[in-house]
């Protein structure tokens, strides 16, 4: 695969410079998709959006008759099954228009024709097979679109191009104190030491010269495992933004010569990747994530212990979930026990909780206390990539 240079502004209408990263995806098929999406090819962009959303909704195949019949029978039920975004992409119409007009025979004929034409196009382009299931070619297209989408977001937020100074990292462990200087983070200000210094100097108001900050000690090479809850409640926009956050984490960590692994879990682990520097492999696996059923957090934590190498590196597990574990006789206690085992094995554990209820919030706090990691309770998913990266920076 061809990836844009991190110093180059990404614009799908105008690409100034690209460079080839290491990996085995640099084949004509992927290069063709990359070029067409960058150049704004409407057909490929539309197809990639439809494929991405079908994966995010857990739809394994495209069945035009079932889609159409559910639509005309009960739009609200169809929306619950397929999701409003998928229905928008498959019909080329907005939710309000669909719901208002779907009972009109003439409109039904129009929608049916559009759905059939889209399915035929996907088949002709070999994005779905004879059984109407997504092909490897479709997953390649979806992975490239996912990468480009998140890279654009990262650029807009000023993430791309950020480099960590490992000799004196802003985000390492608190080691000692130093005087505040330009470039230091305000969140690193040592309040007690600052106040004491100001009082010793007889100052009634704290001045800039009084400010002390924590010095940070870099923690060397970092291995991370990104563990994503892919239970049914995560489908749609939730899982889409979690995927993009995973892409952002992989992009930054690998650019910093760290390694990232992957665990996708529902009632069991569906995908696992040992910490690696192969960005293309991680991207492919993230793009394929599709929601399943229940949630087994304890099993995921225990599996991470096995995936981390027996090396003297920083080992960190990030768990993203929107609910309580549901697998096991006592899922909560089993999760805490698993966290204890992970911590004993030298792994710290952070939790990104998405709209957790009080019980889930309490368990997440216990996990991070035992796992000596960070807890983030997320209400606005649009900033999820920044939250994930903040957790990564806290390690390095």
Task: Tell me what you see in this structure.
The strands form three sheets. This protein has a six-stranded mixed sheet with strand order 7-6-5-8-9-10, with helices on both faces. The protein is elongated, with a radius of gyration of 24 Å. Helix 8 crosses helix 10 and helix 10 runs parallel beside helix 15. About 8% of the residues have low confidence. It is of the alpha/beta class and 396 residues long. It has three domains: 154 residues, no CATH class; 45 residues, no CATH class; 172 residues, 3-Layer(aba) Sandwich (Rossmann fold), CATH 3.40.50. The two termini are 29 Å apart.
Helix content: 40-55%
CATH superfamily of the largest domain: von Willebrand factor, type A domain
Strand line-up across the major sheet: 7-6-5-8-9-10
CATH topology of the largest domain: Rossmann fold
CATH hierarchy class name of the largest domain? Alpha Beta
**Structural class by sheet pairing and helices:** alpha/beta
Question: What's the CATH architecture of the largest domain?
Answer: 3-Layer(aba) Sandwich
Number of structural units classed as domains: 3
Overall form: elongated
Blueprint of the fold:
Blueprint: E1 3-4, E2 18-19, H1 28-38, H2 42-56, H3 64-73, H4 75-82, H5 84-91, H6 95-101, H7 105-124, H8 136-156, E3 173-179, H9 191-200, E4 212-217, E5 222-229, H10 237-255, E6 259-265, E7 269-276, H11 279-287, H12 297-307, E8 314-321, H13 331-344, E9 347-354, H14 358-371, E10 372-378, H15 384-393
Parallel strand pairs: 5-6, 5-8, 8-9, 9-10
Antiparallel strand pairs: 1-2, 3-4, 6-7
Helix pairs in contact: 1-8, 2-5, 2-8, 3-4, 3-7, 4-5, 8-10, 8-11, 10-11, 10-15, 12-13, 13-14
């Amino acid at each position: 695969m061809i990836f844009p240079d991190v110093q180059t502004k990404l614009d799908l209408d105008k690409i100034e410079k690209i460079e080839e990263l290491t990996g085995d995806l640099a084949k004509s098929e992927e290069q063709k998709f990359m070029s067409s999406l960058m150049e704004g090819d409407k057909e490929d962009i539309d197809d990639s959006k439809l494929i991405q959303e079908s994966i995010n909704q857990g739809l394994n195949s495209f069945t035009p008759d079932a889609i159409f019949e559910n639509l005309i029978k009960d739009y609200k039920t169809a929306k619950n099954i397929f999701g409003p975004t998928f229905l928008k992409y498959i019909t080329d119409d907005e939710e309000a228009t669909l719901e208002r007009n779907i009972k009109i025979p003439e409109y039904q004929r129009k929608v049916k024709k559009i759905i059939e034409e889209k399915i035929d196009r996907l088949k002709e382009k070999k994005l779905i097979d004879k059984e109407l299931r997504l092909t490897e070619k479709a997953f390649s297209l979806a992975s490239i679109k996912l990468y480009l989408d998140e890279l654009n977001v990262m650029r807009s937020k000023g993430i791309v191009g950020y480099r960590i100074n490992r000799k004196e990292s802003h985000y390492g462990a608190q080691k000692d104190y130093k005087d505040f200087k330009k470039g230091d983070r305000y969140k690193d200000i040592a309040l007690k030491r600052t106040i004491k210094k100001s009082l010793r100097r007889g100052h009634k108001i704290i001045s800039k010269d009084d400010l002390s900050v924590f010095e940070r000690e870099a923690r060397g090479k970092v291995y991370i495992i990104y563990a994503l809850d892919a239970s049914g409640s995560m489908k749609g926009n939730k899982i889409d933004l979690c995927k993009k956050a995973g892409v952002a984490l992989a992009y930054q960590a690998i650019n910093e010569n760290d390694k990232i692994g992957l665990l996708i879990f529902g009632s069991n682990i569906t995908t696992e990747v040992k910490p690696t520097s192969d960005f293309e492999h991680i991207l492919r696996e993230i793009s394929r994530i599709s929601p399943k059923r229940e949630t087994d957090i304890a099993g995921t934590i225990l599996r991470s212990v096995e995936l981390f190498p027996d090396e003297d590196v920083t080992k960190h597990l990030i768990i993203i979930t929107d609910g309580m574990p549901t697998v096991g006789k006592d899922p909560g206690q089993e999760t805490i026990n698993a966290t204890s085992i992970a911590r004993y094995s030298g792994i710290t554990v952070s939790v990104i909780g998405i709209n957790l209820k009080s019980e889930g919030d309490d368990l997440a706090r216990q996990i991070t206390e035992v796992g000596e990691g960070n807890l983030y309770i997320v209400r606005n998913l649009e900033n999820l990539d920044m939250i994930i990266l903040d957790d990564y920076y806290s390690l390095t």
